[in-house]
């Protein structure tokens, strides 16, 4: 009986006390190599459109990835910006082909996101904007998309994605496949859903909502599955990431309340568990720009632009998939003493060579140098050092 009274309080404490993160100290990888894939100097003669940003990738086969990116004149307010694509050999680290996927004056094509459909089709859904004449601000037009049925050799013309159950979405984040269905995280905007400005008369921001939409017929028809902003507690959310997890999914979100959160949902996207990672881990900042979740060797990782009170950094976090504790924090870039003005929307891929696994990151990076535009770079690390 005495033994039970000693154990019971510990069990109760474990049930009612929130898990405490290990709060790891930031580390830097010993091995690092970098390659400038595309530099602004390469485009100096092309109507000054040499601002390279927002890469996204799709693995086409073990030797090749597709990289889409924006090419324009500035981070925003950028009429005429185009969405380009390169075909990149991951064994030789060379560009095979470069071409434009989306272009229409004076629209702004940026933030293209690759979608892999279960039946083999691939697509790229783009955040397309325009400058309003009255307020001189970026205004969403509704997403456009292009698709390929020959694994990226040719693409359809860009076309409007259209409304989904009466809602038009402007910003696509990431997708996940389950069975014959692809699920996509998508954000609506007041200028699309209510046909009004994204700012009120006092200039205060009016927030959109992040939802899950789905297609089981190669993107010909879409339906809304759930509004995650409401499901997660009426949160104002922006960039998000999704991966399958058992019978459900894991979702990472960047909140306008300067919180990074991790959520577990079931197969119907009903919330099971969520945790404020910014509060749980001192080295996670007020936001993680364009977060990317992925799993490797049974472990969970979160990659993104970490803003933690100083210069921005590209960070990789290892997270316990059950407790949501942050176990490790790797600072991948920049080097100590280097300040980056804009950058670090990043996407990862793995490459095996010489009996070693290399962790690669495709990202964009703008040094704090006057007149210097961002470049698209590849960063390479030994996986056994950063995992």
In short:
The protein is mostly beta strands and 387 residues long.
Would you write up a description of this structure?
This protein has helices at 2-16, 190-193, 228-231, 277-280, 383-386; strands at 33-38, 51-61, 64-72, 82-89, 94-102, 108-116, 122-131, 138-140, 144-148, 159-160, 163-164, 167-178, 181-188, 210-215, 223-227, 237-245, 248-255, 260-265, 271-276, 287-296, 299-307, 313-319, 326-333, 340-343, 347-353, 356-367, 375-382. By secondary structure, it is mainly beta. Strands 1, 24, 25, 26 and 27 form a 5-stranded antiparallel beta sheet that branches. Strands 6, 7, 8, 9 and 10 form a 5-stranded antiparallel beta sheet that branches. A 5-stranded antiparallel beta sheet has the order 11-12-13-14-15. The protein starts with a helix and ends with a helix.
Oligomer state equals single chain
The helix-and-strand class reads mainly beta
Please state the CA-atom Rg, rounded to the nearest Å.
21 Å
What share of the residues does DSSP label as strand, in percent?
Answer: over 45%
Sum up the overall morphology in one term: globular
Question: End-to-end span in angstroms?
Answer: 46 Å
SSE blueprint:
Layout: H1 2-16, E1 33-38, E2 51-61, E3 64-72, E4 82-89, E5 94-102, E6 108-116, E7 122-131, E8 138-140, E9 144-148, E10 159-160, E11 163-164, E12 167-178, E13 181-188, H2 190-193, E14 210-215, E15 223-227, H3 228-231, E16 237-245, E17 248-255, E18 260-265, E19 271-276, H4 277-280, E20 287-296, E21 299-307, E22 313-319, E23 326-333, E24 340-343, E25 347-353, E26 356-367, E27 375-382, H5 383-386
Antiparallel strand pairs: 1-27, 2-3, 3-4, 4-5, 6-7, 7-8, 7-9, 9-10, 11-12, 12-13, 13-14, 14-15, 16-17, 17-18, 18-19, 20-21, 21-22, 22-23, 24-26, 25-26, 26-27
């Amino acid at each position: 009986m005495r033994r039970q009274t000693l154990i019971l309080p510990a069990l109760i404490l474990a049930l009612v006390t929130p898990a405490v993160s290990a709060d790891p100290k930031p580390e830097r990888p010993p091995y690092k190599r970098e390659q400038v894939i595309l530099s602004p100097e390469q485009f100096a003669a092309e109507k000054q459109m040499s601002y390279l940003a927002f890469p996204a990738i799709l693995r086409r086969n073990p030797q090749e990835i597709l990289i889409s990116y924006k090419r324009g004149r500035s981070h925003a307010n950028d009429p005429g910006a185009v969405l380009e694509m390169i075909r990149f050999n991951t064994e030789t680290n060379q560009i095979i082909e470069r071409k434009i996927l989306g272009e229409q004056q004076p629209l702004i094509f940026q933030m293209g996101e690759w979608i892999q459909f279960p039946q083999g089709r691939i697509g790229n859904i783009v955040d397309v904007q325009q400058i309003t004449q009255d307020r001189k601000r970026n205004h969403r037009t509704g997403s456009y998309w292009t698709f390929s049925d020959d694994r990226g050799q040719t693409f359809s013309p860009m076309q409007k994605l259209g409304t989904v159950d009466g809602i038009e979405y402007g910003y696509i984040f990431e997708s996940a496949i389950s069975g014959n269905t692809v699920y996509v995280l998508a954000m609506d905007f007041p200028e699309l859903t209510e046909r009004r400005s994204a700012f009120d008369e006092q200039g205060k921001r009016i927030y959109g909502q992040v939802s899950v939409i789905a297609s089981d017929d190669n993107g010909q028809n879409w339906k809304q599955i759930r509004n995650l902003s409401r499901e997660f507690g009426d949160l104002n959310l922006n960039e998000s990431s999704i991966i399958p997890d058992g019978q459900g999914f894991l979702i990472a979100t960047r909140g306008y309340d300067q919180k990074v959160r991790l959520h577990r949902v079931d197969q119907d996207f009903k919330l099971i568990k969520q945790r404020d990672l910014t509060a749980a881990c001192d080295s996670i900042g007020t936001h993680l720009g364009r977060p990317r979740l992925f799993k490797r060797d049974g472990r969970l990782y979160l990659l993104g632009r970490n803003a933690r009170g100083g210069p921005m950094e590209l960070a990789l976090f290892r997270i316990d998939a059950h407790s949501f504790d942050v176990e490790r924090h790797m600072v991948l870039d920049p080097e100590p003493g280097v300040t980056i003005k804009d950058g670090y929307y990043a996407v990862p891929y793995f490459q095996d060579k010489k009996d070693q696994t290399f962790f690669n990151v495709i990202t964009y990076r703008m040094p704090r140098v006057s007149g210097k535009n961002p470049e698209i770079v590849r960063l390479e690390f030994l996986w056994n050092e950063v995992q």
